[in-house]
Amino acid sequence: MNQTHSEVLPSEVSSSNMNKYEQSVAQFSWDEIERHFTWYETGKVNMAYEAIDRHVAEGRGEKTALLYSDASRDEAISFAQLKEQSDKFGNILRKYGIGKGERVFIFMPRSPELYVSLLGILKVGAVVGPLFEAFMETAVKDRLEDSGAVALVTTPALLSRVKRDELPELKHIFVVGENTPEDEGIIDFFSAMEGASSDLEIEWLDREDGLIMHYTSGSTGRPKGVYHVQNAMIQHYYTGKVVLDLREDDIYWCTADPGWVTGTSYGIFAPWLNGATNVIRGGRFSPQDWYGTLAKYKVTIWYSAPTAFRMLMGAGSDLISQYDLSNLRHVLSVGEPLNPEVVRWGYKAYKQRIHDTWWMTETGAQLICNYPSMAIKPGSMGRPLPGITAAILDDQGREVAPYTMGNLAIKTTWPSMMRQVWNNPAKYEEYFRIPGWYVSGDSAYMDEEGYFWFQGRIDDVINSSGERIGPFEVESKLVEHPAVAEAGVIGKPDVTRGEIIKAFISLREGYEPTQELKDEIYRFVKEGLSAHAAPREIEFKDKLPKTRSGKIMRRVLKAWELDLPTGDLSTIED
Ligand code: 6R9
């Protein structure tokens, strides 16, 4: 392996919440964390109560829960106001007979009403399903149909993408906005809210009752409905405390949309279970708006993704000096491997160590992380949290030696683990093909100090002249080249070598796509990494295909290259 294992950004935080747990990894028990929740006394629970109402009941109602802004709105909403609004929406849902266990979906851009609706849905014990606003007709229909959703919250603009005549189970559509069409089954959100009572008896649930469904795409087949239960809150709360390092006065900003699991587990549940003030920004990415948001709200903890950090890196360091980012004390990343170059840049540009975290829709919450009290090795996603056992296994389920690439697997089970793939028990079982382990589908290796190093999705690993090459390593080297903004690497079949490396590259401003540049980039990887990892073919692209959560879609690159079907594209960015 050519990744640098000796480079270390030392731990700076000696007073983090994690210390207590780290020191007691041996005695770690989830029970201790569970004691935070009232089910210890009552046996019953509800996420919306624990995230919002509890803070009002304990005298923190006036505290700001949500700081929302987009191009046209700028609002501060307290825990008490969120409680009142979501109680009202809960009452509206009840009036239409919607309750425990039923699926209610949300299909709209970020706005305070999205968060109010989501909490209201949880309060009546329904299971919420958030969808990306960018979904088109078929993607929306597939998900509503598969889940058997009985109701949907959406906006007038998106309503035309909902094929109501093909969705017999979908009885009620709540429309948030002006000029709601008058039609059977359509309810105007704002007028309903005006008339609604804010006196609501919450639906008390068991720990194993439903919470949320996120649809996630595999490379083949239909998207999978990953189903989570109330019990996940134990881990949302715990990781919020020890990985996000949330404390009493933090202003926290998670940049993810609730259509992605990061936007719910860490954009809603973790911060509010910990009583933090949560910043939500609507609208699209722009470096100016993002730095503006950090400065305006004096954000202290910032959770984002590699694709965003790479774009900010591309926007340059000069821009940063125009904003006061001095309140930032903790920065985290998720979704894709975090290139070492980005970590080095963040350390210089923000004077912050960017903490990579690894987890999946299926795992519900973080599992392998760089937490504040540990030294960071740039390029590594960190170590398993206390309470989590991770390993690299071969296909027979045997643990492999350090530095050997294999299946990243997690010993079952943990509180936020998915409980089913909706309507598809066979898919669910596939994750457990090695007894006692959850097999992630990622390929990685571990070093002697127990740090995990991501290599790629198993399907993406390249075999060139008998060498196994993780695409991430090559991509990380590529983005170190000054001309390269982003890179996606695939294996391309080759008669002599089995596969060769092909790189798709988008260039930074001011660089021309020439043959000389290709040659130079090839040499750059050959000399900096190794000959077998150097891309023998390079293709320049204006943009790389990415998911809504910013993942480079290597299977799409591969499909283009080999003229194969691209599979499910519903989550691709436009
Ligand atoms: C939370 C989330 C899961 C897949 C996962 C892996 C990739 C996520 C990563 C990472 C390298 C990290 N991934 N975090 N790869 N380093 N820190 O992203 O969920 O959208 O379901 O994706 O994302 O391949 O298997 P999800």
From TrEMBL:
Keywords of the record: Acetylation, ATP-binding, Ligase, Nucleotide-binding
Keyword ATP-binding: yes
Enzyme class: ligase
Domain of life: Bacteria
EC number: 6.2.1.1
Entry-linked SUPFAM superfamilies: Acetyl-CoA synthetase-like
GO cellular component: cytosol
Domain AMP-binding enzyme C-terminal: from-to ranges: 473-551
GO terms under biological process: acetyl-CoA biosynthetic process
AMP-dependent synthetase/ligase domain segment(s): 55-419
Family as reported in the entry's similarity comment: Belongs to the ATP-dependent AMP-binding enzyme family.
Protein name: acetate--CoA ligase
Protein source organism: Paenibacillus uliginis N3/975
